[in-house]
Amino acid sequence: MVCVSRLFQRLSLLLAATIFAALGLGFALGEFGMFGVHAGSEQDGAYRQMHVYAEVLKRVQSDYVTDPNINTVTTGALHGLLESLDADSSYLTATEYKIYKDRPTSGVAQVGVTVSKRYGYATIVSVIPNSPADREHLGDGDVIESIGDTSTRELSLAVIRLMLEGKPGSTVALSVVRPRKPDPDKITLTRTVIPAPAMSDQQYENSSILYIKPGALTTDRVDQIAAKIKTAGKTRKILLDLRDVSEGESEQGIRLANFFINQGTIAVLQGQKYPKQTFSADPSKYLTGAPVAILVNRGTYGAAELAADAIVGAKRGDVVGERTFGEGSVQKTIELPDGSALLLTIAKFEGPDGKKIQDEAVAPTVLVGQNQDDDVDEDTPQQNKGDETLNKALALLKAKNS
Question: How many whole angstroms separate alpha carbon 13 and alpha carbon 70?
């Protein structure tokens, strides 16, 4: 029998603590052990899996071809455990968590991308115009294969986002895989402090349609949208461009939807142990009953998805474009005894139809363009039709009576 080292024992205990936290079993001893009540089948299954993991780890330590770094092995297993849940759930080592806690909240330089994880790697959701990433022609759907010499498959989403940030003027080297290109591009970006994308608006069809592109859904930006709608009057048709809008808080997405919806459910937030919250339209915040259309693409993310999904659910207007990215959840930070931490998803947003945005994204009512997963023949010339999504939405609104 091979003896298990103290390091092994300590790491096994860490794994146990992590699994308990991830499964919401923090009170398991009080609920089951002290009162002599046995855990249900799901808890029993978790205990059995812990024993299996301990046996696997012991075999790796004793029989692997070389003496493994058990700390690295265990950290990798914990990363995999959390990422098997969803892209936003992360395990942070003690060192990573300290950096995460101590990161500055203002004046941080960035490269100009919103990232998530897809298929195990960091994937670009959207790119801020005129940012370093934009100048290197990075786009929605590009995969960041590695940051420096580290594969993003080995990194949690929280750490990936930290590594893309830094001091103004500092650089970061990326290996980027673009759709339908076999070889990755090696790119070095210089971080800079990037302001939120500018808001723009325009009149169409003899000023009968007000086009608004907010760029972000911050509190101030949604205030500006409200002011534009009020100035336009209650009969002016509204075309809201939420393509590549990835910045903003969920509350602002709900608030934006309320401008166009005067009754009913806008969104629901709930989880296994998270109290159900229903966000209903407030008639006092309703601004216009005129026809509305929303433009979306795969870079529409988070708060913008909440707004678009509410419009669809209320049958309030057309949502035109591509299927959105699929982001709508709440995370909780759970500190562990050794200084490490979990960023664990504890609740997800649902639209009025009960579908989880995180799982199913927002499907447009009028599909224009191709989503990332659609097949495209590279040898077939693509006709330049201008902004086809915008033109389609304008035609739909033009045909409607105010």
Answer: 13
CATH superfamily of 100-190: PDZ domain (2.30.42.10)
Domain edges within the chain: 6-84, 100-190, 200-331+346-373+386-398
Torsion of CA 130, 132, 134, 136, to 10 degrees: 140
Taking the C-alpha atoms of 376, 379, 380 and 384 in order, what is their torsion angle to the nearest 10 degrees?
A: 90
CA separation, residue 16 to residues 37, 54, 94 (Å)? 20, 10, 16
Dihedral sign (CA 278, 118, 177, 190)? positive
pTM (two decimals): 0.84
Interval 217-239: pLDDT, tens: 999 999 999 999 999 998 999 99
Distances (CA, A) of 392 to 237, 242, 385: 15, 15, 11
CATH number belonging to domain 200-331+346-373+386-398: 3.90.226.10
**pLDDT tens digits for 255-296?**
999 999 999 999 999 999 999 999 999 999 999 999 999 999
Residue 21: what are its φ and ψ, rounded to 5°? -65, -45
